Amino acid sequence: MNNRALRIAHLYPELLNLYGDSGNILVLRRRTEWRNMECDVREVHVGDRPSFADVDIAFIGGGSDREQRIVCDYLLETQQELAAFVEDGGVLLAVCGGYQLLGHSYLMGDEEVRGLSLIDLYTDRGSPRLIGNIVVESHIAQQPIVGYENHGGRTHLGSGVEPLGRVLSGYGNDGFSGREGCLYHNVVGTYIHGPLLPKNPGVADWLIARALERRYGSSELAPLDDAEELAANRTMVNRMLG
Amino acid sequence: MGVRSFTATSAGRVARWALHDVLHRSGSQLPGRIALSIDPQAIAHLRGKVTCGSIVVCGTNGKTTTTNLIAAALEEAGHVVLCNRDGANMEAGVAAALLPRRKADWAVVEADELSCIHILPKLRPTYLVLLNLFRDQLDRAGEIDHVQNTLVASLANSPETTLVVCGDDPLSVGVAERVLELGTRVLTFGVGEDLGLPPDRVPEARFCLRCGQELQYAYRTYAQLGSFRCPSCDFARPPLDFAARNVRTNREGVSFELVCRLGSGFVDDAGTEASREVPPANKSAVVAARVDIPSASRNVDANSFHEGGDANGMHVDSEGRSDSVERIARDVPAEPCAIVNGHVHASFGGAYMAYNLLAASAAMLLANVELSCLQRALDGYDPHNGRLQHFNVMDREVVLNLAKNPTGLNQNIAMLMEDERPKAVYVIINDDYNDGRDISWLWDVDFERLALTGAVRRVMAGGHRANDLQVRLKYAGIAASIEQDVADAIACVVDLPKEHPLYVLTNYSALAPAKSELERLERERSLSVKNAPIEE
């Protein structure tokens, strides 16, 4: 069991890095390594022709409008590869702007920008921006998922797409449906931006377990001492839910 | 002064007197709020009492220190100065700063970037010093594009203001290029050489603002600052009107030679000295820098470029444009109109402080004040505002500093790593409104550097988001305890030798409580605080 290894593809870190996104990669790496597995992180840069054939987990972060637009043009060139990866059960985490890119389209100003169409969802805009701490209940993690959202977009899921979870505090996809993020095959999309995984070790381990399952047929994970992570999670849950 | 503005000013003054002299509160904003509520144009009505001119300082990091230094140096030169020294940098704070006295020579004002849109059109300052732009408080300030747009609009509504901009910062230069097209006069400052410092993270501005290509650097000083150039278009670090040379940064502080060539193409494309040599007579001389740009003269003629003064080129009357940014865009060579060498040194700070001092030096020359006044201000600089403030608690040196965003914290880490003594570090992170509620940026900070050497003996986390910080440190390979306050942190390092200093780094709202706690602890000679181990 100990010679297992995972390969992570970090897509366009130089552009999609709006707020601490790299924390997610660091958490995936450490939680893999702490279990005596190797973790190889490969950064995909603008101009690269990425292959997802040997990738276990792909990560797309969030960027400013300008940067997100640049990325979308590059990502569209790899749309078929990415779609095949997702349909094959490849693990993909997309946060904030990256989440919006997963769908058919999103709005930049008044302009409709084509997305990757990996998942049946689309994003339009609303006012005001939805900003603040958020708590979400999801079946992929034992503890509530906590984080921070800051988005003008309103994301609408197609009928066959499950949300990541139910909003306990905060806004989520559109501010009124109580749904947050999306869950499709092994894809997690969420408006919780930046460092989603540090305070949500359950989500991190779900992603790692799904990747191990796909590559090795076994999702068994050695337990870790998560005292600090869970304390941080609990502190925010208590603050938001009282 | 109309009845309304007289009433506003009087009411504000009464409030200031009541707060300051009766209640002994600092009164940094309330008098301004009162004045503004009676007269929304209070700043415009108050600016008339400033006779020489006004300098507004903005930028993400370094505002308070730079503002205070400029004000102190002008006072050293004998000027009467109005200043919002405590960093109340929104419109009310600025109005409050302008209330005292009937006449003043200079107003030196720190301004929040987004508040410039309210401040500049009313104050119409002589100079706007733009230090830098970093990502900071996305939830409140929005993306950097929005901050840039606001600054451009502010300058568009204050056409007589000269922008004094950090030429090493692509994001600030982006603002300069846009206002040049509006006719704003622009001067640049920057570091004219490679400091050879280890590069830190560059979380922003890696791409050309015009064409999106990744910027290339001849060298970087910190974050995205340095000698940058776009490989595919002509967006590049502009020639510098005020440049620092022979820069030294270490634990003892910062020093550099200031080289000023107003309106010159000082640095060539590769970041090396241009073919025009500094005349030997001026090369090493520390001179009384006299660069007159009459602030009274408002009729700036876009095409005039007067060179005047004495034969050595020391005294220059440059009433016209000397905007090097525009010149590089047009690729029109111009003769240097001033060459001034001067030496500046401070016993604190790192690379980021070199820029603050450089900006202050530029302001000195522009205000026609000798650099020695700035040096005297620096020598006596004891801010008592929590910025790099030193304390002695139970014979241990405690250094307090503000670190409110990733670049600020990275620069603080770089600075304390230059202190070769073994040390302890206590980081306090709050998420109050003034801090920004979103603390995601902790993951953009190079805390890993604290674990690199054995020099950091203990790391502690505090503040409302101590748990988040503790997790961040855990993933940086650092086991940190959570300490409730500075007293606890000091008690926690009581087993470390007294020679090991404690660095306390806090974000905005945690700074004042930490400062007053340290002042209290310093007063109490012996620390009989809670949790301290009982010695047998």
Provide an overview of this structure.
The complex is a heterodimer of chains A (about 240) and B (about 525). By secondary structure, chain A is α/β, with parallel strands linked by helices. Chain A has one domain (about 5-240): Rossmann fold (3-Layer(aba) Sandwich), CATH 3.40.50.880. Helix content of chain A is about 30%, strand content about 30%. Chain A has 6 helices and 12 strands. In chain A, the strands form 3 sheets. Chain A has a 6-stranded mixed β-sheet with strand order 2-1-3-4-12-11. A 4-stranded antiparallel β-sheet of chain A has the order 8-7-9-10. In chain A, helix 1 packs across helix 5 (about 200-215). The longest helix of chain A is centred in the last third of the chain and has 16 residues, at about 200-215. Chain A is globular and about 50 Å long. The model of chain A has no long low-confidence stretch (mean pLDDT about 95). With about 525 residues, chain B is of the alpha/beta class. Chain B folds into 2 domains: about 5-380, UDP-N-acetylmuramoyl-L-alanine:D-glutamate ligase (3-Layer(aba) Sandwich); about 390-525, Mur ligase, C-terminal domain (Protein-Tyrosine Phosphatase, Chain A, Alpha-Beta Complex), CATH 3.90.190. Chain B has 18 helices and 19 strands. In chain B, the strands form 4 sheets. Chain B has a 9-stranded mixed β-sheet with strand order 2-3-1-4-5-6-9-10-13, with helices on both faces. In chain B, helix 1 (about 5-20) packs antiparallel against helix 2 (about 30-40), helix 4 packs across helix 13 and helix 8 (about 145-155) runs parallel beside helix 9. The interface of A and B includes residues 17, 64, 131, 199 and 228 of A.
